[in-house]
Description:
Elements: H1 2-39, H2 50-56, H3 67-79, H4 91-106, E1 122-127, E2 132-137, E3 140-147, E4 160-163, E5 166-173, E6 178-187, E7 190-194, E8 209-211, H5 213-222, E9 228-232
Parallel strand pairs: 1-9, 7-8
Antiparallel strand pairs: 1-2, 2-3, 4-9, 5-6, 6-7
Amino acid sequence: MGVVGNIRGVRMRRAVALSVAGLMAAPALVLGSGASAQAASCTTSTGPYQKQVEKYLHRTVDGKQSTADCKAIQSFQRTYGITPDIGYAGPITWRTMQTLTAQKAAGKNPNKAGKCPTNKGRIACVDLTRQLSWIQDGAKLKYGPVPIRSGRNGYETRTGAKKVYLRHIKHWSSLYHVWMPYSQFFDGGQAFHSVGLKMWNPPGSHGCVNMRDADAKAYWNLLKNGDDVYVYGRKPGT
């Protein structure tokens, strides 16, 4: 019995050693594949908005995709959280560039067109078309404008006059199973809150007005229950 036991012990030790070796080798294979995939991620395809994107990025406008064009587009996509980030001059990339241009043009006078009411005292304004939000006291700009990320197609942020009715500094969404820091609800389940994403990351939220952490915190400190919210416009692509 002792000899049989020794043989079994040797076999078990060999099996364990082979299993451990296999587990140690597997990550190396995965990493190698990932690195190769990442290196080949820059597309050679010419996108439908190639010329517009080339002009925006101050590239030679010839409507033809080059390696340098792809890298420039890819860099833009990664800066603004656009996915997939393969350097393709598609509608999402061009739409983001148009939105950024409109946001920059707003400057410190986002309510120049007078679309957000100025007769309600403290009010949070949300312009879905430019993906901008700001807080004003009457006609005086109090905070912003700041970029926001509103509802995607099929989950659009609802427009109209609303009021903050519920505030929860560390809200947990039981529907989407995510944290919603600095939540301030103004319409059903729709709220201002912070997210760990770029504001231009497609396709958008499930109806909430997503904000950068610092902006969501500033809104938390400036607003209270009963304050007015006004949402207007239409998000590009919805």
